[in-house]
Amino acid sequence: MKALRRFTVRAHLPERLGALEQLSINLRWSWHKPTRELFGAIDAALWTQCGQDPVALLGAVSPARLDELGIELPKAAKALGAYVPAVRTGDLVYTAGQLPLAEGNLIRSGKVGGEVSPDEGKRLARICALNALAAVDALVGVDAITRVVKVVGYVASAPGFTGQPGVLNGASELLADVFGEAGAHARSAVGVAELPLDAPVEVEVIVEVQ
């Protein structure tokens, strides 16, 4: 008997779906005909109630979810050089490295572990992640994100500072808050001597979109 391939995705559904909100859908891909027919019927029922393809709702972020978290996405930061803030290829969007900018201005400069405390660095990493989401939003819409694939973070570090993972948790925790299980991601946390504009942190994100 051929093995049943299975994966589970937690859906963050818009509030208007009522009882279907936060529904966990098991999608089974199988050569077993009754299994395919069963999940086809479930999808059809969800489509009737949602008015949308239920698979397209998996991982989607509603405005209500952002409001609930008290999050307002900033305007996408303008590129500081000869590049674009985000690029889509297939089902993936890659952002450029995002600095802790607000309205085009660097919020804080310096080295983490020196004039910038680790806690402040963590807060700045969160702002970088928000700017990364803003870049995705400007390209395809943040509600198109179905999962976060990878985060790469660079921390301008004072000599001897080795707490880069804790600093980058500011970005990772934000993404987990917004996307739930779909926000779990691979990550690299890299300590560097300098960053552009003497920024303490820079974050880039790869997301899957529908």
Would you mind describing this structure in some detail?
The N terminus is likely disordered. Helix 3 crosses helix 4. The chain contains four helices and nine strands. By secondary structure, it is α+β, with helices and mostly antiparallel strands. The strands form three sheets. Strands 3-4-9-7-8 form a five-stranded mixed sheet, covered by helices on one side.
Give keywords.
4 helices; 9 strands; 210 residues; single chain; 60s Ribosomal Protein L30, Chain: A; 2 domains; five-stranded mixed sheet; two-stranded antiparallel ribbon; alpha+beta
How is the topology of this model organized?
Elements: E1 5-10, E2 24-29, H1 33-50, H2 63-68, E3 86-89, E4 92-95, E5 101-102, E6 105-106, H3 118-139, E7 145-156, H4 164-179, E8 186-192, E9 201-209
Helix pairs in contact: 3-4
Percent helix among the residues?
25-40%
User: Which fold does the CATH topology of the largest domain refer to?
Assistant: 60s Ribosomal Protein L30, Chain: A
Mean pLDDT: 81
- CATH architectural label of the largest domain: 2-Layer Sandwich
How much strand content do the residues show? 15-25%
Strand sequence of the main sheet, in spatial order?
Answer: 3-4-9-7-8
Number of domains: 2
**Dominant shape:** globular
Q: Give the biggest sheet.
A: 5 strands, mixed
Give the CATH class of the largest domain: Alpha Beta
Q: What's the alpha carbon Rg, rounded to whole Å? A: 20 Å
Output the helix-strand order.
EEHHEEEEHEHEE
**Number of DSSP strands?**
9
